[in-house]
Amino acid sequence: MRGESCTGKTRTAFEAIRVCLKDWQLVFPKNARRLLALLDANALAPRTVLWLNEAQIFLTGTDAEEATAALHSRLEQTGPVVILGTLWPEYHRTLTATPEPGKDAHPNARALLNQVKPVDVPASFTTATARWPRP
User: Fold this and answer.
1) Which of 40, 61, 75, 130 could tie 125 with a disulfide, CB 3.0–4.6 Å?
2) Distance between CA 20 and CA 16 in Å, rounded?
3) Which among 78, 77, 81, 71 is positioned nearest to 115, based on CA atoms?
4) d(CA 124, CA 111)
5) Strand partners, 2
6) Would you state the pLDDT for residue 63?
7) pLDDT for residue 129 is more than 60
8) Which residues of 44-68 are buried (b: 16+ CB within 10 A; e: fewer)?
9) Cα separation, 90 vs 94, whole angstroms
10) Residues 43-67: tens digit of each pLDDT
11) What is the DSSP string of the chain?
């Protein structure tokens, strides 16, 4: 889910999981180090949702490149597993931009994000979009 601050990315993700994957296990690591430990332990069982809220926390900073490489490897294993992240557009642009030669700080994050088709959450909802059916 991609959108600006306070647009409802987290709520939209929550509602999607609640409706579509209600019987699945939810795993919610707090940072890249914990994500890496989770992936190193091969702890994502089938029918698990890996929730990366504010995905820039996992894709930048300490342990991020190693965790992102492990996450990319996990996608090549059997599933089903859903990896759901929320991300601001500015972080998405920064992480997917082609770097200057010799200045590639996030190659694994870029490789991972370039495989994703983001779902954009609008800054505000119109009356028509606000009336979606509720369970």
Assistant:
1) 130
2) 6
3) 71
4) 30
5) 87, 120
6) 92
7) no
8) beeebbbbbbebbbbbbeebbbbbb
9) 6
10) 999 999 999 999 999 999 889 999 9
11) -B--TTSSHHHHHHHHHHHHSTTSEEE--SSHHHHHHHHHTT---SSEEEEETTTHHHHSSTTHHHHHHHHHHHTTS-S-EEEEE-B-HHHHHHHHSPPPTT--S-HHHHHHHTT----BPPSS--HHHHT----
**Of 109, 97, 84, 110, which is closest to residue 2 (Cα–Cα)?**
84
42: tokens are 């091969």
Count of residues making up the chain: 135
Burial of 69 from C-beta contacts in 10 A (0-12 / 13-18 / 19+): middle
